[in-house]
Amino acid sequence: MGQASDHDECGTDGGPVDEQAQFSALLEDSAEDLYEHAPCGYLSTLLDGRIAKVNTTLLNWLGYRRDDLLGRKHFSDLLTVGGQLYHETHFAPLLRMQGEVSGIALELKAADGSRLPVLVTSTVKTGSDGQPLLIRTTLFDARDRRAYETELLRARTEAEQERERLQKLATTLQQTLLPPALANVPGLEVSAYYHIASVDQVGGDFYDLFPLAAGTWGLFMGDVCGKGAAAAAVTSLARYTLRAAAVYDPDPAAVLDNLNTVLNHEYNGTDPRFCTVVFGLLTPDHERGGFRITLAGGGHPPALLMRADGTADILPTPGGQLIGALPDAHIATTAVHLAPGDTLLLHTDGLTEAHTDAVGGRYGDDALLGFARALAPTTAADSIDAVRDLLDTFGTGVDDDAAVLAIHVPRPPSEEQQ
User: What global pTM score does this model have?
Assistant: First the structure.
């Protein structure tokens, strides 16, 4: 019984011993087989580049017979014209100096004229005396890599084109949300500027100056929370609601109350939308000259008044609440007389919230007031130019759109000449 058991363990019927023998046979044959059928191409050349040995894998890639290459062709003969130039001017000199060149991208010419992209590594083999004898070269098929790079380049090109398209769309949409030209108000000089923080996104800042009943004009400036298409929709709704409401009842508080009702009703669900707005009603003051302006504010930064005498101050509307956030928002109003030489500047918070240093410091209301005091007295055009220059000094620190609107009552020509 014991002998029978030992006989079974020997594996005469295909047991473990047979498997071990087969494995040993594979190992004995594996060196030559691995060279000939490796997943990469191998060739050996003499120092002058003549091919002395080549494996079956490379022959199959190129469609050559072994006798077509051995002793008949040089390695450079397998390269494209551009590859031959690179081999002569860079590859071969580096190989001679360093003894090895690794990971060079070249293209081989197949027997049928097609091209095969490969990654080439060559090593100079020396004899026992240290003298170079031959060059061994390994070639990896780079077709998958080339296809990947081509696809990556195509995807990058498409992404850049898509970004350009979106930038153009955002710019076009932004332009449609701003007035093409501000109204010409007799006795006033008006100037405005819109600073776009990102060409990829539509901002939510808006402004306008437009005629109402005879002898009166309305103006507004606002800033919708958020960016993108959703903010653009609110911006458009706010602009047209303000203009329509002002025609119906030009009282600034009533205009903002109307807008508050519309926004709160339209966006009172899971995606509430609101904005800060200041609305002004301009009326010529025939008795004192200049204009009377009544401002109503809903959470918006206060306007700046730069007087003809060189002083400047803010025109606060304290207590004004965000428009659209509450069903019954509190609207604060203030009135002021714009005398000849005075300039009123309205702005959005993209200006005061601009970063001024690497640690995240903000420009702030106090700095803007100091800026206005240094600027006064000024004109609408000069004040807007000064703000543009100021924004330019912040560079990328302006991470939110900024809008500014300036109105100026010119002095009589006799005073201007003095």
Answer: 0.61
